[in-house]
């Protein structure tokens, strides 16, 4: 049976390969038929819709031309009739124009003209439908001068200051004595521009010289066609037409297939050599053709989808098996990811615990080790030694009063040493001491007094910048002075290798009370371990690396922070920020 099954499988393999090639060939033929059908349909429908669009555009052009000629012909006879009106002739003869304006208004309502003006022999407007024009002088106007010289009606196209054109018919009025005046009838042709602008065409009318006198785009007026087509136009139907007709003569006949060309049509107007030109876009043609092509493509797409669906059914069982295996793999993967995430959380928790334990060990060792006592008592002991030497010298010189003053300072230092030893128990716990208002300026002065022997010995230049008003904080003055002394001592140690050592002390009051100690030493290289216990850059015997760690703990206990950075001109800058007291109310940053 196994041999029979193998033989069946081996016979199915060539059959499967033959079927696969047939299916592929059928799909290729279907795609080729689809491409040819779409191409033939596109060409046929494009030619058909283009011809219909051209016929409609020619019909509209003939309609526009007929309406324009009809409007001009209807108003051409009006000046001839008004030149024979006895009321107007009598008004010119008697110079009594009280009723002439009203008579012209009655005429303009009947004939539909834009305006009518009656001018005397000197060109002065004596009657007009627009009362604002009464009294104007048109002695040099073309329609007045040409009418005086001609025995017939004269047509004039005059460009106004705003760029539009005025179209007038004028005729002189005469009697037996000679020329009395001129009657001028203005024709409203701009209404055609407004009507043409409501369609998708761009239309222009040019006179015998090629100058555009009517156009759906106002910027065209007064220009030739070549100059007008170089202008940018606003959004809308005209913009599409002008953008495409910038150089329409250089485009091939089927350029509109890429949306870049328009149809240009021109006809002659039987009036003084005028020409009417229109530009029609091919957008509607493309839309109609694309609609049919979309339907064809959709039909072929459905056929291809059905073919692929039939092919996919053959692999349905295999895909189901793969999906089942994939689902099992996803379950295993999710379980593995949960285990990995749990292990990572445990490692992070362990790392945090180890860090906390190490920090606690450091703080416990800091409270227990006697090196802290040696570091904090070093400054008072050095000062006491200096004061004792000075008192001995004063006693030898028989100056006991001054020696007593030195003994008084030694007594203050002994009190400070006792306070330091009492404060050592606060390093291992937070808070617990009663705070009181502390004047930062007085605390700084006391700290500088303690450092006076070292400053005098090193010849360090001290610059102090203090505010005019006292700066108060809530805290322990002894501990604040302890921080100041540590910062000053670090500044002195940092300037040992400098030729002209300088230390600048700046006290500022804002949202916090900020004390800045700047030196001109070599600066700070390792900020990460700066406030760690037992970290020092000094030579063995010069320090144990506890000053900044103790100072940072004190400032934190007072609700502030101690920071360090390098200055712009070199050297280190330490800043102690404490909550400031404003009118007895603590304002923390």
From TrEMBL:
Matches recorded under SMART domains: HATPase_c, HisKA
Phylogenetic placement of the source organism: Bacteria, Pseudomonadati, Pseudomonadota, Alphaproteobacteria, Rhodobacterales
Annotated ranges, domain Histidine kinase: 372-582
Role according to the record: Member of the two-component regulatory system DctB/DctD involved in the transport of C4-dicarboxylates. DctB functions as a membrane-associated protein kinase that phosphorylates DctD in response to environmental signals.
Alphabetized UniProt keyword annotations: ATP-binding, Cell inner membrane, Cell membrane, Coiled coil, Kinase, Membrane, Nucleotide-binding, Phosphoprotein, Transferase, Transmembrane, Transmembrane helix, Two-component regulatory system
Lipid bilayer topology: Multi-pass membrane protein
Main location: membrane
Family matches, as InterPro entries: HATPase_C_sf, HATPase_dom, His_kinase_dom, HisK_dim/P_dom, HisK_dim/P_sf, Sensor-like_sf, Sig_transdc_His_kin-like_C, Sig_transdc_His_kinase_DctB
Listed GO CC annotations: plasma membrane
EC number: 2.7.13.3
Coiled-coil regions listed in the entry: 319-356
Transmembrane segments: 21-40, 292-311
Record's catalysed reaction(s): ATP + protein L-histidine = ADP + protein N-phospho-L-histidine
Enzyme class, UniProt record, top EC level: transferase
Subcellular location: Cell inner membrane
Protein's recorded name: C4-dicarboxylate transport sensor protein DctB
Species this chain originates from: Phaeobacter inhibens
One GO molecular-function entry: ATP binding
Pfam families assigned: HATPase_c, HisKA
């Amino acid at each position: 049976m196994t041999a029979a099954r193998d033989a069946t499988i081996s016979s199915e393999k060539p059959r499967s390969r033959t079927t696969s090639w047939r299916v592929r060939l059928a799909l290729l033929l279907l795609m080729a038929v689809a491409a040819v059908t779409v191409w033939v349909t596109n060409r046929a429908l494009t030619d058909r819709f283009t011809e219909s669009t051209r016929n409609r555009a020619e019909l509209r052009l003939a309609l526009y031309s007929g309406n324009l000629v009809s409007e001009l012909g209807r108003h051409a006879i009006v000046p001839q009739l008004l030149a024979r009106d006895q009321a107007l002739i009598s008004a010119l003869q008697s110079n009594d124009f009280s009723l002439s304006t009203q008579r012209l208004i009655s005429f303009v309502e009947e004939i539909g003209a834009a305006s009518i003006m009656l001018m005397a022999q000197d060109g002065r407007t004596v009657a007009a439908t627009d009362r604002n024009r009464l009294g104007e002088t048109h002695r040099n106007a073309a329609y007045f001068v040409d009418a005086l010289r001609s025995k017939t009606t004269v047509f004039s196209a005059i460009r106004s200051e705003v760029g539009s054109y005025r179209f007038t018919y004028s005729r002189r009025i005469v009697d037996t004595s000679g020329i009395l005046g001129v009657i001028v009838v203005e024709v409203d042709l701009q209404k055609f521009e407004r009507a043409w602008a409501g369609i998708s065409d761009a239309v222009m009318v040019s006179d015998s010289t090629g100058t555009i006198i009517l156009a759906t785009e106002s910027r065209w007026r007064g220009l030739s066609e070549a100059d007008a087509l170089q202008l940018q136009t606003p959004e809308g139907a005209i913009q599409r037409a002008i953008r495409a007709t910038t150089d329409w003569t250089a485009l091939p006949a089927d350029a509109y297939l890429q949306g870049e060309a328009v149809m240009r049509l021109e006809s002659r107007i039987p009036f003084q050599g005028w020409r009417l030109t229109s530009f029609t876009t091919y957008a509607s043609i493309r839309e109609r053709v694309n609609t049919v092509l979309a339907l064809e493509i959709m039909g072929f797409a459905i056929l291809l989808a059905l073919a692929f669906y039939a092919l996919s059914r053959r692999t349905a069982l295999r895909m189901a098996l793969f999906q089942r295996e994939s689902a099992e793999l996803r379950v295993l993967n999710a379980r593995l990811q949960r285990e990995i995430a749990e292990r990572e959380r445990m490692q992070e928790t362990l790392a945090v615990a180890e860090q906390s334990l190490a920090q606690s060990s450091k703080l416990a060792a800091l409270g227990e080790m006697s090196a802290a006592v040696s570091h904090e008592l070093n400054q008072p002991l050095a000062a006491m030694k200096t004061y004792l030497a000075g008192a001995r010298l004063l006693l030898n010189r028989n100056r006991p009063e001054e020696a007593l003053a030195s003994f008084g300072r030694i007594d203050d230092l002994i009190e400070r040493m006792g306070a330091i030893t009492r404060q050592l128990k606060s390093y291992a716990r937070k808070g617990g001491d009663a705070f009181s208002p502390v004047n930062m300026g007085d605390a700084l002065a006391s700290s500088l007094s303690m450092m006076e022997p070292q400053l005098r010995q090193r010849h360090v230049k001290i610059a102090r910048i203090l505010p005019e008003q006292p700066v108060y904080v809530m805290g322990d003055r002894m501990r604040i002075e302890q921080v100041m002394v540590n910062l000053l001592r670090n500044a002195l140690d940092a300037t040992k290798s400098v030729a002209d050592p300088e230390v600048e002390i700046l006290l500022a009051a804002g949202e916090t009370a900020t004390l800045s100690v700047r030196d001109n030493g070599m600066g700070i290289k390792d900020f990460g371990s700066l406030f760690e216990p037992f970290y020092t850059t000094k030579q063995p015997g010069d320090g144990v690396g506890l000053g900044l760690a103790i100072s940072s703990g004190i400032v934190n206990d007072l609700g502030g922070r101690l920071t360090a950075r390098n200055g712009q001109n070199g050297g280190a800058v330490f800043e102690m920020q404490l909550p400031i007291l404003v009118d007895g109310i603590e304002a923390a940053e």
